[in-house]
Amino acid sequence: MATTQIMVVEDESIVALDLQTTLEELGYAVPVITTSGADALEKAAKFHLDLVLMDIMLKGEMDGIEAAEQLRVRFDIPVIYLTAYADNNTIQRAKLTEPSGYILKPFEERELQITLEMALYKHKVERKLKESEQWLTTVLQSIGDAVITTNTAGFITYLNPIAEKFTGWSQAEAVGKELKQVFKTIDGKTPTSIANSPRPTSSNLLLVARNGLVTPIEDSLASLKDSQGNINGVVLVFRDITPRKQAEEALRKSEEQLRQAQKMDAVGRLAGGVVHDFNNLLTSILDYSNKLSNKLSEGDPLRQEVEQLQKASQRASTLTQQLMAFSLKQTLQPKVLDLNTIVTEMDGILRRVMGDDIELTTTLGSRLGRVKVDPNQFQQVILNLALNARDAMSNGGKFTLETANIKLDEDSGIQHIRVVPGQYAMLTISDTGVGMDLETRSHLFEPFFTTKEPGRGTGLGLSTAYGIVRQSGGHIWVYSEPGLGTIFKIYLPITSDPDEPAVLKPTSSRLSRGCETVLVVEDEDGIRSLVRKLLQKSGYFVLEASHGIEALQVSEQYEDTIHLLLTDVVMPLMSGRELAERLALVRPNMKILYMSGYTREAIDHHGLLDPGLAFLQKPFTLSVLSQKIREVLEAEVPSS
Fold this sequence. Notes:
Mean pLDDT: 80
Radius of gyration: 47 Å
Distance between the termini: 103 Å
CATH architecture of the largest domain: 2-Layer Sandwich
Largest sheet: 6 strands, antiparallel
């Protein structure tokens, strides 16, 4: 254990030397003896001292009290006054320097030793306490949470830097003030003393800073206790939970969008299944009603009723096409084109639709990326949105179309389910109408959902738009609040494929005739019978079968040429594709035309057909069937 090092500051040499002898006999070391305060400070800087014995009355400009203060402040060395002066003025001055002892001359050796040991012990304890306080201060200043402490009366005793930042009050300004003056919340709730509460309390509040800035916080309040368990204050700890609130909101939106996407998928699958069966029924209804109409004379009273049946069937066919669009099963004819072109071509019809009391504004982005969409179907998307906007602005308003290039990144994927990061061409369609609440927005794209009164819509307009955009690889998002209008944003992926003219081949209503032999394979008797009669009426020789096995038998028994196989794709016992492959082995020159109530995209998805093969979507009319058959029969066989 190191020997205690003591400096003696005494201007009487005999007294100083006597003190040195006494201290050394007691086991202490006295490396320094000096007669002035200035020299004592100089020596303290050079020696490692544990304690100083200081006379008050020293020669020179600095007396012992001034020297002791400098030693305390600059070197943190404990000082014991050893003096003959005990007047009240001297004692009061000495007290200001926080001495470790005060001994009056003359003194006894035992008194000196006890005072020295007590001073050294006290300084050791104080140093440990200061180190502990410094450690605690460092921790409180470095942690990420804000900390405020108060006494039992609720007056602030400490703020760490984070608390200063959030409240806008510095520690110097806040100490001594009531907590409610510094820690203010938007609802006026302020943590109070919990002297009577044995457990910490916590809550979520909105903190209002001195400059008015509002921060959502999570706070906790606990009591401060001394070593005997007595409460002597309160500690308030709080943290900014803005990132957590944002993450919770983002998660809530993602979960909501995921549920919406799953619901739309389920409804889409249901719609797709209904459409398949309904299309088969419509094929029979349409063609038999056409056939019946042709047999009735112009003046026949039944002709008008049959025509109403035909109109109803056509409307039903239109509904199935809209359902197919929603369920992503519609047959599209996409072209690579500039989105600005479609918007520009829609200007005239949109102005007629909107009327004079609605202002139409179009802003086209420059150098817009090319997209791949079915131009006719996408025009229908714009028209459907325009019609809804018009109905939402019964007292007039503003309708705006804007195009721009935009990049969707990973953050967009967090906010919107299913988005694929990349470059998109964006079409924004906005109106200043009545807007929609959350409940309406959550059902907006569902088939048959409508807020219009009965008879003013089928509820398929927006679901059709949704399906066309999604089937084109794009996304459609809606932003709306009651009274604030509605904004639809459509994002279509930019393609690097070369441009194509956005022109569809006109469909002729003239029936195409032929004399070839056609093998019709269809498992539904009504459809098979109808197709046979249609083809026979157009001059074809027809063979028929109800399934693939029967078709193979018909082919084996028929010795002449079969020019075309017209087969349903999905049938019992054998699929249309398998039938075609087996017949191709024995009739390699026979052409093949597939038909189905399912869409081409759905069939391709299940691997039932190879891309590029001839396909006819049910329901179809006689003219469509006859034209498609001629197209297949007259197509050149690709060279192998």
